[in-house]
Amino acid sequence: MRRLIAATAAGSLAVAAALFGALPASAADPAEVYVVHGIPGLPVDVYVNGALTLDDFQPETVAGPLDLPAGSYEIAITAADAADASAPVLTATADVAEGNSYSLVAHLDADGNPTITPYANDISTISAGQTRLVVRHDAAAPAVDVRAGGTVVLAGVTNPQEGVLNIPAGTVSADVVLAGTTTVALGPASLNLAEGSATFVHAVGSAADGTLALVSFVIPGLHSAPGGVPAGTGPADSSLPGVALIVLLTAGVALAAIGGRRLYLDRSL
Amino acid sequence: MSRRRAATGLATGLALIVAAPVIWWATQPEPAGQTVSSVNASAAAELASPPPVTSGESGLASVSSQEMPSKTSPPSDSAPPPSEAVDSPAAPAASSDTVPAPAPPTSAPATAPEPTAPIRIELPALGVDAEVAPVGVDSEGLMEIPKDVDTVGWYRFGPVPGAAAGSAVLSGHVDDYQQGQGVFARIGDLGPADEIRVTDQNGSTRRFTVLSREEWSKGEVPLDRLFDRGGSPRLVLITCGGSFNSSTLGYDDNIAITAVPIM
Predict the structure, then answer these.
(1) What residues of B are in contact with residue A6 (Cβ under 8 Å)?
(2) Which residue segment(s) compose the domain that A156 sits in?
(3) What homologous superfamily does CATH list for B41-49+111-261?
(4) For helices B2-27 and A240-268, what crossing angle results, to 10°?
(5) Number of folded domains that form chain A
(6) Structure pTM?
(7) Interface predicted TM-score (ipTM) of this complex, two decimals
(8) Which one of A51, A183, A234, A248 has the lowest number of neighbouring Cβ atoms within 10 Å?
């Protein structure tokens, strides 16, 4: 039932995230916006500048990326059966810059109240062999630690903070524990983190209501080439020629010394 | 008599002193690296995808699901992926309730099975027939090369040979200081129209024909082009060449052979 309506008529299309600290962009690239629904049990409609953009948007899903021209957008979220944007549950203003990537996350704050948090997605190039894992605390839950393979990799993350890891690509067993404890709040989840991709994981829902869940999406294509190809270390070493050299030199010196000494003694007779 | 024998001994000794270093020098193994002329370099460059935009590679972004126990999104089964809908710029804002998903590109031509990881390479012109193993990067971010000089490494983060797009990279030793000459020592002898055959895990053999041969000093190797994951489908063989630098135990150059599929 989820429907997306894309609009391109000048300026009329719009969803957006506000943002800070994103990357410089080349001109004319639209912004990309992912919309994450992290409020349990509440299908919604999303209006951008008054236009219905996401209809009957289901909890714990992701929509996007929406390609948006740079600009400032009014976002209104209503109940899914609303006729228009006149009675929003949540509103936000979002500014997006050219060529950048954003997440707009509707979620519960630490106290369980619905809110919207915009994030800049780190889509900078990733070193060869590496992957990027971004974990966002968007749940009505206390501070948490994120563990990978049992080791804490992000400590003391609170709603709505995010933590960013650039790690070797591969499968990671990750879980979320209450900060400073081993009490598992979420997981473990087996994450297959592809090389050159960024995986954005959102912890959403409410700890008190037992509705914690993970919502994720992946941005691929951030890879880079290896730094070089060291395909040779030179000719094979062998000690034989060196040993032969020493033996021959020794023999030569000995013969010359003996012969020379004898000649010298003969002459002096 | 003894005087003559003494003179002979002296002469022999002196001759040995002179000859031994000469023999030693003459028997030192030569570095196997070649220095070759570049052929068709511009043709190889034209196969690359356009230079990346400074930020973002936005066109590549997409949503995909992860292996997570909880509900993750978006589903790729029943509902049309949102990215497909919003990627159609022609859809007018208010005109429709639903945006139909474009028909998925269902299957490749039936005659061409999907390529899988390569396990064997043959270079008939050089008499090379070698195993291929997947490799990644080392701790310094350089491409790994198989320890065994007789094995060729396939860069497993890039395309497989035979993929629809991008540069599949195979690299092999020119030589190794412990094992001697490597399997790719003579790839600089390959030239246009030489054939390369690569067999994958499923036993499918794909044929390529050499398009270009290039050599650069290591600081100038177009790594982004050689490891391009887009652009025309191609196979790139890389090894070392140029002068051997005995202080760094490495070569000054890289040699690359670019080949294209024989349809």
Answers:
(1) 85-89, 91, 93, 99
(2) 122-226
(3) Sortase (2.40.260.10)
(4) 160
(5) 2
(6) 0.74
(7) 0.74
(8) A183
